[in-house]
């Protein structure tokens, strides 16, 4: 058990740092786009902006799943990357299908990845919520106009 913690915790820290990088990239893109388009926002631009933020956050989560999959491969748990990535995705998203399991010696890594994943999806949700709230805050008059009579 201790060896799994010593292996899993550094990977979790790496994922936390990676998520911070993706959040920073999203925020920089968001602020830059918002500054350039200030006063000229349109529905299409808002959709584009929110879509880019969403895709970047999902990409960050997918990269983290791939990192866990590589770890599983390095530990000899899976013979091919596709299976390791599938198992990683199931863990990261906390689905817990159980159709593919790791060896008894490494099973604790699954819950560690699940804890990591749920935290990272929470961060991604927070970033998306902040972006949506900012779009709503910037466009109250436009939103009322779009509602119609």
Top keywords for this entry?
mainly alpha; Helix Hairpins; elongated
Question: Can you offer a commentary on this structure?
Answer:
Residues 67-132 form the Potassium channel domain. Keywords: Ion channel, Ion transport, Membrane, Transmembrane, Transmembrane helix, Transport. The chain crosses the membrane at residues 6-27, 47-75, 117-136. The structure is a single chain. This protein is mostly helical and 149 residues long. It has one domain: Orthogonal Bundle (Helix Hairpins). It has five helices and no strands. Helix 1 (2-36) runs antiparallel to helix 2 (43-74) and helix 2 (43-74) runs antiparallel to helix 4. It starts with a helix and ends with a helix. The mean pLDDT is 89.
How many strands, which pairing sense, and closed or not: the largest β-sheet?
none
Helix content: over 70%
| Average pLDDT over all residues | 89
Q: Give the overall shape, derived from the CA principal axes.
A: elongated
